[in-house]
Each structure stands twice: as structure tokens, then as C-alpha cells.
Automatic annotation (TrEMBL):
It comes from Roseateles saccharophilus. SUPFAM superfamilies: ATPase domain of HSP90 chaperone/DNA topoisomerase II/histidine kinase. Pfam families: HATPase_c (PF02518). This is Serine/threonine-protein kinase RsbT. GO terms for molecular function: protein serine/threonine kinase activity.
């Protein structure tokens, strides 16, 4: 895990199942640090778990980058899941509930989007994928 000197951003590798657990634990710690409600903590941890698993399974591994935001009384957490995997050929199809390129339930991307305030998906076939999510308190 890397963290900048100010402690407001960093990254963790996602290369193994253990790293998925580590990313979830870090998101729990960060949301608690920002005093998110238990419901908001759970939403962000759930989204992070889904996206970490996607990064590992479909992207072949990558990194979770995180950044804390404090804007007056407003606080937020941004997470980016980045891989250099095969990419997603049809983003519209990938965002449909029930669609999966593997053996999952097809709820990972679309479900994660519903759990956060901001969601961005960028993917290039043959180069990889970046999913960025933000939840505000």
C-alpha cells in the first residue's frame, strides 16, 4: 500500500483474493475516518468489494487508488479501480443488470453505480479499464 505524506490519497494492489479483503478493510477504515453513517459505510464497502473483485477476475489484477475529500463541511471518498486487462467492448451492455461476461450475477457494475453518488467507467479494448466511484457524506 502506498500513501502520500498528507495521508489523503494512496493506492493498494489488487492481485489476489487477500488483496480484495484488504481493499475492503481499507475502505471501511477510510469511511469511518470520514464519519460516514453505517449505511453509507456499507454502501461504499459493498461497491469497493464488487469492483475489487472485478479488477481481479476480469482485469487480471490492478490497483485501487483512493482519495479523501474535505470541502468545508462536506467530506467524500473517491476510489478508482484500474487494470490493464482486456477491456470492456460494449460499455452499455456491461452496465445492464443481469449481463455478465463470466459466471457472476451481472450486478457488479450496475449495482456499484447505484450505491455511490458519482460513477465513471472508462475502458479500452486491449488496454484496460478504470472505474471511479465517489460517495459524499
Amino acid at each position: 500500500m502506498t500513501t502520500n505524506p498528507a495521508g489523503n490519497e494512496g493506492s493498494v494492489p489488487i492481485r489476489t483474493e487477500h488483496d480484495v479483503v484488504t481493499s475492503r478493510q481499507l475502505v471501511r477504515k477510510l469511511t469511518q475516518q470520514l464519519s460516514f453513517s453505517l449505511v453509507d459505510q456499507t454502501k461504499m464497502i459493498t461497491a469497493a468489494s464488487e469492483l475489487s473483485r472485478n479488477t481481479l477476475i476480469y482485469g487480471g489484477g490492478g490497483d485501487m487508488q483512493w482519495q479523501l475529500h474535505r470541502e468545508g463541511i462536506r467530506a467524500g471518498l473517491t476510489l478508482s479501480f484500474v487494470d490493464q486487462g482486456p477491456g470492456i467492448p460494449d460499455l452499455d451492455l456491461a452496465m445492464k443488470d443481469g449481463w455478465t461476461s463470466g459466471g457472476g450475477l451481472g450486478k457488479g457494475l450496475s449495482g456499484s453505480k447505484r450505491l455511490v453518488n458519482e460513477f465513471e467507467l472508462v475502458s479500452t479494448v486491449g488496454k484496460g479499464t478504470r472505474v471511479t466511484i465517489t460517495r459524499w457524506k
